[in-house]
TrEMBL record:
Annotated signal peptide: none
SUPFAM superfamilies per record: Metallo-hydrolase/oxidoreductase
InterPro entries named among the record's database cross-references: Metallo-B-lactamas, RibonucZ/Hydroxyglut_hydro, UPF0173, UPF0173_UPF0282_UlaG_hydrolase
Protein name per UniProt: UPF0173 metal-dependent hydrolase C465_03635
Domain of life from the UniProt record: Archaea
GO molecular-function term, one example from the UniProt record: hydrolase activity
Pfam families assigned to the protein according to its UniProt record, in alphabetical order: Lactamase_B_2
Keyword Hydrolase carried by entry: yes
Domain Metallo-beta-lactamase: 7-201
Protein keywords: Hydrolase
Classification via SMART domains: Lactamase_B
Cross-referenced NCBIfam families: PRK00685.1
Species: Halorubrum distributum JCM 9100
């Protein structure tokens, strides 16, 4: 599984022959990528805030994976015709997306379509992406990536996501102010039980500027077994 961070919460995930793009927002200082350079099969949207769907219209051929409310919005306003499942999915559900299995999980955050108050974005979410369908039986051969979306620290991480979905790697918001800060992300790194954790949702604008060493320090202070990895913008990490 290849994980490429394009700044903020934007991740390009490749599982065998399937490409997934999460929360497209390329107007951030960590990326030099033009959205036209990417051609994902699936477009995963955690919630409707502008810094997570700003460039969704660039990928109208991709199949949208989001809540029914957000799916309906992008279909009507951005021209997307394909969704999975038809009409969207919801928290707790798992969908087969080509060679990947995508499970939608909770995120503790607000939501809404900022440029259109007549629309609700539904519940904010995160995604767990694996190369096998999750079951109650532990599978050491399954490779799994957790994108936490915009969230604060929540007990679901330790009660549900860690024991059931068993992420090998996790991308955790660390910019504070709108999400967890480094301390909360450090605790989350321990709770989710991943081998590798990445900070995201930081340095895109003033209120969320941080020193990434704080994230590294807080992961260690929490006693997490995870290795904290700070990626450069547009850098790829291969998860095996």
């Amino acid at each position: 599984m290849e994980l490429t961070w394009h700044g903020h919460s934007t991740w390009h995930v490749v599982v065998e022959d399937t490409e997934l793009l999460i929360d497209p927002f390329f107007d951030n200082p960590k990326t030099d990528v033009d959205p036209e350079e990417l051609d994902p099969d699936y477009l995963l949207l955690t919630h409707g805030h502008a810094d997570h769907i700003a460039d969704a219209a660039e990928f109208e051929d991709a199949t949208v994976v989001a809540t029914p409310e957000l799916t309906g919005y992008v279909q009507e306003n951005f021209g997307h015709e394909h969704t999975l499942p038809a009409g969207g999915m919801n928290i707790g559900g798992t969908a087969e997306c080509g060679d990947a299995w995508v499970t939608m999980v909770r995120a503790d955050h607000s939501n809404g379509i900022e440029n259109d108050p007549d629309y609700s974005g539904g519940m904010p979410t995160g995604f767990v992406i694996g190369d096998k369908k999750p079951t109650q039986e532990s599978d050491a051969d399954c490779t799994t990536f957790y994108h936490a979306g915009d969230t604060g620290l929540m007990s679901e991480m330790v009660d549900v996501i860690a024991p059931y979905l068993e992420p090998d790697a996790a991308a955790l918001p660390a910019g504070d102010h709108f999400t967890m800060g480094p301390a909360g992300a450090g605790i989350a790194a321990d709770w989710v039980g991943a081998d590798v954790v990445f900070p995201m949702h930081y340095d895109s604008f003033g209120p969320i500027e941080i020193e990434t060493q704080e994230f590294v320090n807080e992961v260690k202070a929490a006693g997490a077994a995870a290795e904290p990895v700070v990626l450069e913008g547009d850098e790829t990490y291969t998860l095996e």
